[in-house]
Amino acid sequence: MNVIEIKNLKKNYKTIEALKGVSFEIYEGEIFGLLGVNGAGKTTLIKILSGLTKKTSGEAYVMGHSLEEMDIIKDIIDISPQETAIAQNLTVEENLDFFQRLYGVMDKEYLDEIIHKFSLNEVLKRKGKTLSGGWQRRLSIAIGLISKPKILFLDEPTLGLDVIARRELWNIISSLKGKMTIILTSHYLEEIEALCDRVAILSKGELLSIGTVDEIKESVHEDSFEEAFIKIVGGIE
Ligand SMILES: Nc1ncnc2c1ncn2[C@@H]1O[C@H](COP(=O)(O)OP(=O)(O)OP(=O)(O)O)[C@@H](O)[C@H]1O
């Protein structure tokens, strides 16, 4: 089943064509990667699908709901943005409590499950601002799960993290597989390879390639995903 259908979606910011008529589908339960060099249109696409900005033309459906039904879509999705969205002066425990109240989901058992999955027990009493970047990202993604979303957007989930923190987050993200549909953007090709069932490569607002990592590599006869990506986006003359 398609959880997201995008049909000829266009977005102009004044004279800039951020999306030039993009069409593709995202399937239920998959981890889907959005890949592209800076300015490709990845964030714009996520913003349109989550109601943060309006499309210029075209259509998109989230679990069958058109973008005009954003009130319903907002109950289906959650976003963990590039910048961590936690309250810095609240402890981890208070952050979790705050977002539970905000979403009106007071489910102790589910919260304990999240705390356990993200190993947040050891930092529950620490204030947001005292946490390392890795722990902040971890908490941020944990908060994204509180509303029990069917679709979770992760925008650059491991940006700036060291290799250990990154691997730990990969394990957490992998463990969510099948429980919800996850759409993640990343500039780390090895992250996309490790986590994603399928990938869309965008460049300058256009969809250049879509498929599994293996299919994409085969399509341009390259053994390495990095070489394939560079060939597809036309980088390095
Ligand atoms: N609010 C805005 N006003 C004007 N132009 C914008 C705005 N937001 C994005 N753009 C432009 O739209 C294009 C696509 O930007 P977008 O942020 O979607 O790309 P991206 O693929 O997410 O890039 P990055 O990898 O750097 O995050 C770029 O040319 C960008 O400069």
Measure the end-to-end span: 40 Å
Any ligands, ions or cofactors bound here, and which? adenosine-5'-triphosphate
Contiguous uncertain segments of 5+ residues: none
Oligomer state of the chains in this structure: single chain
Annotated CATH architecture of the largest domain: 3-Layer(aba) Sandwich
Protein name: ABC-2 type transport system ATP-binding protein
Domain ABC transporter: 4-229
Pfam families: ABC_tran
Organism: Anaeroplasma bactoclasticum
Task: Please provide a written account of the structure.
With 237 residues, the chain is of the alpha/beta class. It folds into two domains: 160 residues, Rossmann fold, CATH 3.40.50.300; 67 residues, no CATH class. It is built from nine helices and ten strands. Strands 6-7-8-3-9-10 form a six-stranded mixed β-sheet, sandwiched between helices. The protein has a four-stranded antiparallel β-sheet with strand order 2-1-4-5, with helices on one face. The longest helix is centred in the middle third of the chain and has 14 residues. The radius of gyration is 18 Å and the shape is globular. It starts with a strand and ends with a helix. The model has no long low-confidence stretch (mean pLDDT 92). The structure holds adenosine-5'-triphosphate. The site of adenosine-5'-triphosphate has 11 residues, from strand 2 and helix 1.
